[in-house]
Each structure stands twice: as C-alpha cells, then as structure tokens.
Amino acid sequence: MLVLLVIIVTVVVCVRMMKKADEDIQEEERKKSNELQETAMQKLVHEYVNSDLVREILNVICDGNYYSNFPKSIHVDLYGVLGNGNSYTFSEHRVADMSWWRDVTNEDGTVKSQIYPCVALAEAFNYILGNNYDVKVDSDDLDVWMERKPTRFL
Predict the structure, then answer these.
(1) CA proximity to 129, closest of 80, 57, 78
(2) Are strands 102-105 and 111-115 parallel, antiparallel or unpaired?
(3) pTM, whole model, 2 decimals?
(4) CA distance 33 to 49
(5) Angle at 131 between CA 147 and CA 90, to 5 degrees
(6) Which residues pair with 145 in a beta bridge?
(7) Which residues, other chains included, contact 69 with Cβ-Cβ below 8 Å and sequence gap of 6+?
(8) How far apart are CA 138 and CA 144, in angstroms?
(9) Most buried by CB count within 10 Å: which residue of 4, 101, 108, 151?
(10) What is the C-alpha to C-alpha distance for residues 34 and 67, in angstroms, rounded to an integer?
(11) Enclosing H/E stretch for 63
C-alpha cells in the first residue's frame, strides 16, 4: 500500500512539473512575441518620424506651425488626421490606405502579431510634438485619440 502511495505522489509531482514547464514555455513565447511587436512598432514609428509626409500632415493640422501651435486633441483614423479643426484626408492627398497592417514574424517566418500604421503615426506625432500627448488606442487599433497632457496642477 505504501509503495502505491509513493507511486501516485511521484506521478502527481511529475505531472505538475510538466505543466509548470509548459506554462513557462508559453510565457517565454508570449514575451518574445511582445518584444517582436515592440521592435516592429518602434521601427515603423522611426520611419514616420523621419518622413516629410508626417511633417506635411502636422503643418496642416497645426495651422502651419507645429513648433508652437499644438492642437488640443488629434484624431488619427483610416481616412485621415484631424486636429485644431483642420483635417488631412489621406485620399485627398493621395496617401496610401491606412487600413493595412504589417505582420510581425519570428525567426521561422510565422506571423506572431500585427501592427497598424494608425498607431505608429500617432506615436510619431507624439514624439515630434515633444511627448505632450496621452495616446489612447481604440480596441481595434484603427482609431487613435491623442489628448494634450495637463501641465499645471492645483
């Protein structure tokens, strides 16, 4: 009877160890996927920060001077950018459709996640405008709202 009890305990311990190992592997894969997505997003934001088109969009929505005339809020979506009551429509200015996404793949080429250009464009605006905005992404990653951060507190 004692031998049977020892065998059962050993099996239970082995099953728990295997389950823990599987959980650790899944957690490691999730972390790696998040790192890949962050790296891909940073690359796209960097591309946008260095783009003349992004500067053109900022000039339109900031009334010609994005160094001093910050919009109170900025909205980026599939169709354009809105800020200070001015809009920049992608189709009107012959800018490629923003509804596409970029696949983020790992070393073996399998797609791990996707990043959307609307989010990267908003992050680039925020970077150029001195990180003065809170960036809120809609659940589907296709609408991004940027609100100026408060600078004075009571």
Answers:
(1) 57
(2) antiparallel
(3) 0.70
(4) 24
(5) 65
(6) 75, 136
(7) 62, 63, 84
(8) 6
(9) 101
(10) 33
(11) none
Rounded CA gap, 141 and 84, in Å? 23
Q: Spell out the residues 6+ positions from residue 82 whose beta carbon is closer than 8 angstroms to its own.
A: 61, 74, 75, 88
Provide the residue count of the chain.
Answer: 154
Classify burial at 76, counting beta carbons within 10 Å of its beta carbon; exposed 0-12, middle 13-18, buried 19 or more.
buried
Look at residue 112 in the predicted model and tell me its pLDDT: 59
Count Cβ atoms below 10 Å from residue 113 Cβ, excluding itself.
16
94: left (phi over 0), alpha (psi -120 to 50) or beta: left
- From the centroid of its chain, how far is CA 107? 21
Six token digits for residue 60? 């339109």
